[in-house]
Amino acid sequence: LFISGDSNQVLVSDLNGNPTGAKQIDGRFLSDISFPVMANGALLVFSGGEIALLDGAGNIIFQKKDEPTSKDFLFCKSGAVSPNGKYSLVHYLRNQKDFVSMLNEKGEILSSFTLDNVYPHKIFMALDDEGNMAINLPDSYLIVNKKGKPIVKKQKSKREDIYQIAYSSGSFFAVSVENQ
To answer: For the chain: N or C, fewer Cβ within 10 A?
Structure first.
């Protein structure tokens, strides 16, 4: 994947630089790329609401464009894809609130929930192969089931750096807590 200088276009190519698969994906400022651990492909999240999941050959599995009304401001910030590539997460701001939505392979929303705070930056998320989520925020961390209901919600004793670790092997999660 090659990203244009203004981050509004991703060129899809093979290892030799030859165009392949979808050839190019356009959007309004690429904000995150996520790669599945056990499968080939990539999730592309553009801040303007364009989302694309590509397979290992660069073909589009799904592509979504959110067309908000003039009163419905949307800004996508973060993405994650499960190790097997079956589920995707997208973190976005809509009307002054931060949300996380889980999508299936068709790009359909399976669950959504609101975060307690607005985070004006990328957050670190991971999915397992069943659709359960780990979300590592600067002030807390969450383990959420595939229906969007928190299983574990822990506040951190102090606010940490923006950069956090959230990883899934498909069967377990790893998150950094209190700089550990």
So the answer is: C
141's tokens: 């961390």
**In degrees rounded to 5, what are phi and psi of residue 67?**
-110, 80
Cα–Cα dist 130/7, whole Å: 32
Quickly tell me which residue has 């959504």 as its tokens: 112
- The CA distance from 9 to 154, in Å, is 38
Cβ pair 47, 29 in contact under 8 A: yes
Q: Is 71 exposed, middle or buried (0-12, 13-18, 19+ CB in 10 A)?
A: exposed
pLDDT tens column, 104-151: 999 999 999 999 999 989 999 999 999 999 999 988 889 999 999 999
E strand spans, 29-178 = 30-34, 41-46, 50-55, 60-65, 74-81, 88-94, 97-103, 109-114, 124-127, 133-136, 140-144, 150-155, 166-168, 173-175
- DSSP 3-state helix, strand, coil percentages of the chain (rounded to 5)? 0, 50, 50
What integer best gives the mean pLDDT of the chain? Answer: 87
Which positions ≥6 away from 71 have C-beta within 8 Å?
none
